[in-house]
Write a structure and sequence with these properties.
This protein is of the alpha/beta class. It is 41% helix and 22% strand. It is built from 5 helices and 4 strands. It has a 4-stranded mixed β-sheet with strand order 1-2-4-3, sandwiched between helices. Helix 1 packs across helix 4, helix 3 crosses helix 4 and helix 4 crosses helix 5.
Length: 161
């Protein structure tokens, strides 16, 4: 079995030229992490949209970089394959740029970090109060796994050639 990933952009936004590369990267993330039979969506959006989502679902009235909405239900398709509806991920492209500047990394590296982060949340991983911080090595299992996956996939580029 494989995985299914659906990428989209917020209504009214122009679809970035790199969408296919992002999709391919996500399939590599799923394979590297050992996740199989999953389907989920990723929506790229503005700070305004992610702020609304953050306010409505987390009672935090400010934009954030990535939100994951875990589903976890399963269903069987017409070919008798069982799929996990992992959930949905939203990523603010505006905050992505701010993060890249803050962490002093390229936008490509930051996009990959946010994608991996979202996928791990959809699979039950949590980092509690620990967040990625500039110059600080991760302690929790989720952030260590995130770092490991990113290291293994460092040669893959979404925004760069």
């Amino acid at each position: 079995m494989t995985n299914r990933v659906l990428l989209s952009v917020e209504e009214g936004m122009e679809e970035p030229a790199w969408m296919e590369k992002a999709e391919s990267f996500l399939y590599s993330v799923l394979e590297t992490a050992g996740f199989n039979g999953e389907e989920f969506s990723v929506m790229f959006c503005t700070d305004e949209t992610i702020r609304d989502l953050n306010k409505n679902y987390r009672n935090i009235d400010e934009p954030t970089d990535v939100l994951s909405f875990e589903n976890g239900e399963t269903y069987t398709d017409e070919d008798n394959n069982t799929w996990k509806e992992a959930g949905d991920i939203a990523i603010s492209l505006e905050t992505l740029k701010k993060n890249a500047e803050y962490f002093d990394v390229g936008e490509d590296e930051e996009l990959k970090r946010l994608l991996v982060h979202g996928v791990l949340h959809l699979n039950g991983y949590d980092h509690g109060e620990e967040h990625v911080s500039k110059g600080v090595e991760p302690v929790c299992e989720m952030l260590k796994l995130q770092k490991d996956i990113l290291e293994k996939l460092k040669e893959i580029h979404i925004l760069e050639n």
